[in-house]
Write a structure and sequence with these properties.
It is a single chain. The chain is α/β, with parallel strands linked by helices and 452 residues long. It has two domains: 252 residues, Spore Coat Polysaccharide Biosynthesis Protein SpsA, Chain A (Alpha-Beta Complex); 166 residues, no CATH class. Helices cover 43% and strands 13% of the residues. The chain has 19 helices and nine strands. Strands 1, 2, 3, 4, 5, 6, 7, 8 and 9 form a nine-stranded mixed β-sheet that branches. Helix 15 runs antiparallel to helix 17. The protein is globular, with a radius of gyration of 23 Å. The C terminus is likely disordered.
Length: 452
């Protein structure tokens, strides 16, 4: 057997009281075309018939925690028993297409410097008769030339844990994973791995993610699906509030840590830190970063990349409300940017995103938020607020998403990132799917959830 075909993947599946859907998740894993698998279910203290279900599956190793301690503790236990060269952390309620693992493992086998790979997902609902109804694909993400780690700090766009396959050595480098993190566990792992290792993008659907309104989380922190947004916002803020102070300037722009940065590079790193902090509802940290940017001894005009980065500051739907309804945060950000010509450039670059939100509120008929967005626009852009609103209308797409401005030219002017490479699957290393593998059909889509 070749080295490629003999490569073992450890599949870790933490679970808690999900026997009703665990069987289908395991079926999708055991039906993978990549056959050299070690499947480990880590029962986080379930009180249903999970033990009996797993006992019937000869190809599944069953571990049980004595108490419900959360997903991170379950992952740590699974890692202690895993023997594979690669680790796939699979959710107990989701389904993997038969060729998902074969596609995810390809870039890791092709390049020893790649620490993890990640693909795309499609959401689904399970109908009353047990059929899988997939949502239609959402819009493609704009091309973004910045490093993967930076983009992940802004937004957890790798939204399903099983969308990523990790080299075991990459997980060992961040082990033990902090068990105090109970929410945004997947985001915590991705951030720490991406900080140290390259990632490779696989342009393929590698996960069908279940949409449901059931209860989630450790038993001490049970919550319904509609409360997830606030949970994510608070958890992500905590993660980044701890991470941001530990980062060097070079990490915000993907520069070599051993190379001296120019004044403009250091300023851009501060802009990036401010944008990340703003998106995570850390407005004091965002203001501090803008003040640090102004302290750099450079008065060079903003570049296209600078404006693009600053434009991300107000781009998260999970943090925008706290800014819109906080005159204090608006004043602080405006003061931090400054009142000279460069300060006006910075404020305008940040404020442009508010025209997008205003447009969303117009379409939703949300007068309260529309008024707040226009007030915040005035606080930041001041005399030029009207100019931004008029420009949005003149683009013939009322209040067009400012995020898309200049993205294309940024992509053309920057070298491709190694961590954004699209990798084709190794067809020769995978066997055909087993007979009877899950075959979904496209049906009216469930409501798509945005990335965080």
């Amino acid at each position: 057997m070749s080295k490629v075909l003999s490569t073992k993947v450890s599949v870790l599946m933490p679970t808690y009281n999900r026997a009703w859907c665990l069987g289908r998740a395991l079926e999708s894993v055991l039906g993978q075309t990549w056959r050299n698998l070690e499947v480990i279910v880590i029962d986080d203290g379930s009180e249903d018939h999970t033990p009996e279900l797993c006992a019937k599956l000869a190809d599944v190793r069953y571990l049980r925690q004595p108490r419900n301690a959360g997903k991170t503790a379950a992952i740590n236990l699974g890692l202690a028993h895993a023997t594979g060269e690669f680790v796939w952390i699979m959710d107990d309620d989701d389904i993997a297409p038969p060729d998902a693992l074969a596609k995810l493992i390809a870039p890791l086998l092709n390049d020893a410097d790649v620490g993890f790979s990640y693909g795309e997902l499609r959401q689904f609902v399970e109908t009353a008769d047990g059929e899988i109804a997939l949502a239609r694909p959402g819009p493609a993400r704009p091309v973004d030339p910045r490093p993967l780690f930076v983009r992940l700090m802004e937004d957890c766009f790798i939204t399903g844990q099983p969308c990523a396959l990790f080299r075991r050595s990459a997980l060992d480098a961040i082990a033990p994973i902090d068990e105090a993190v109970k929410v945004s566990v997947d985001y915590n792992i991705l951030l720490h791995v991406a900080r140290q290792f390259r990632g490779a993008h696989v342009d393929a659907i590698v996960l069908w993610q279940r949409q449901h309104d059931g209860m989630r989380g450790p038993s001490a922190q049970r919550y319904r699906a509609h409360e997830r947004a606030e949970r994510w916002r608070a958890a992500d803020s905590r993660l980044l509030s701890r991470l941001l102070p530990s980062l060097e300037a070079a990490e915000f722009i993907g520069a070599n840590a051993n190379v001296s940065l120019s004044g403009e590079d250091r300023r851009r790193a501060c802009f990036q830190k401010a944008a990340i902090a703003g998106r995570k509802d850390l407005w004091n940290e965002a203001g501090d970063a803008l003040r640090s940017a102004r302290d750099e001894a450079t008065h060079a005009p903003l570049s296209s990349l600078d404006r693009f980065i600053l434009g991300q500051t107000l781009g998260s739907r999970y943090g925008i409300d706290s800014f819109l309804f906080s005159p204090t945060a608006q004043k602080m950000l405006a003061e931090a940017a400054g009142h000279d010509r460069l300060g006006a450039e910075i404020r305008i670059a940040i404020a442009k995103r508010l025209t997008y939100w205003a447009g969303q509120y117009v379409r939703a008929g949300d007068l309260s938020r529309l008024t707040a967005a226009l007030s915040a626009l005035l606080a930041l852009a001041r005399a030029r607020a009207g100019e931004l609103v008029i420009a949005a209308f003149l683009r013939q797409l009322p209040f067009k998403d400012a995020r898309r401005t200049r993205v294309a030219e940024l992509a053309h002017s920057s070298a491709p990132e190694a961590d954004s490479t699209v990798v084709s699957p190794l067809a020769a290393t995978a066997k055909p799917a087993r007979a009877g593998a899950l075959q979904p059909r496209l049906q009216p889509e469930p409501q798509a959830a945005a990335t965080r």
